[in-house]
From TrEMBL:
It comes from the Eukaryota. Belongs to the isocitrate lyase/PEP mutase superfamily. This is Carboxyvinyl-carboxyphosphonate phosphorylmutase. It catalyses: (2S,3R)-3-hydroxybutane-1,2,3-tricarboxylate = pyruvate + succinate. GO terms for molecular function: methylisocitrate lyase activity. It holds the Pfam family PEP_mutase. It comes from Penicillium diatomitis. InterPro entries: ICL/PEPM, Isocitrate_lyase_ph_CS, Pyrv/PenolPyrv_kinase-like_dom, Pyrv_kinase-like_dom_sf.
Amino acid sequence: MSVNTGASNLRKVLEDPNGFVCAPGVYDGLSARMALGAGFDALYMTGAGTAASVHGQADLGICTLNDMRANAEMIANLSPSTPLIADADTGYGGPIMVARTTEQYARAGVAGFHIEDQVQTKRCGHLGGKQLVDLPTYTTRIRAAVQARKRIGSDIVVIARTDALQSLGYDESLTRLRAARDAGADMGFLEGVSSREMAAQAVQDLAPWPLLLNMVEHGATPSLTAQEAMELGFKMIIFPFATIGPALTAMREGLEKLKRLGLPGLDPELTPQMLFRVCGLDESVKLDADAGGAAFEGGVDLQK
């Protein structure tokens, strides 16, 4: 019996020759609810978004394992059958900590996660000046994750990410990904792909091993749609800024309007009831009634 329904579902998609995963980046419960409501079959918990929303800080290795696991567990359990792929940064330490990260993510309901080859004081993959660990240290991280997954009998998908492209070049990046593949990683992740041609070449060079494309608009990678990524041969595409980007813009505009006019001027449909319904109000009311509760007999809509 699988430890994790979301992980089992993710593996089924990856094993399907025609399967493809498109996962919008989410960073909190509301953004996850919105993505689920829009009909997405998978979600991606962005580390940058978690750092920004939990700590109000840039993605500079500030989040701890506890920060990331807690956020991932909350998001994953909003819809346990929907795969959640989560950032796991460097694994938060040596082999013992990487194993602990794997176990905690699996038990939290995470379906898949990626571990990278940056040093512990890491930074966002789309910033310059990244520093890397050596190849043996990287493969040790991957091997520790794979062994932990097997030890607890989990289907959680281990994704090997390399940030070597920026400083060490394409060939060294391939060497690292192949070593991670040999260590048992289920999928590869070449961070910072700089051209469509490179994206296609990576898929070809590492076939039939499945690859993930990280689509950060206005970052190092040229904009590719989910359909284009699938046609190039990728098995998964993530959009880390899909929710936090629009949220940042909307909040900034709304707050500037409040400062200027003294009132946010929200759309009439943005009532408290609307917000709570996005977050499962109707399901909660039904649950209470089905159990014989009477907490909502008078309804929840305001009487005018």
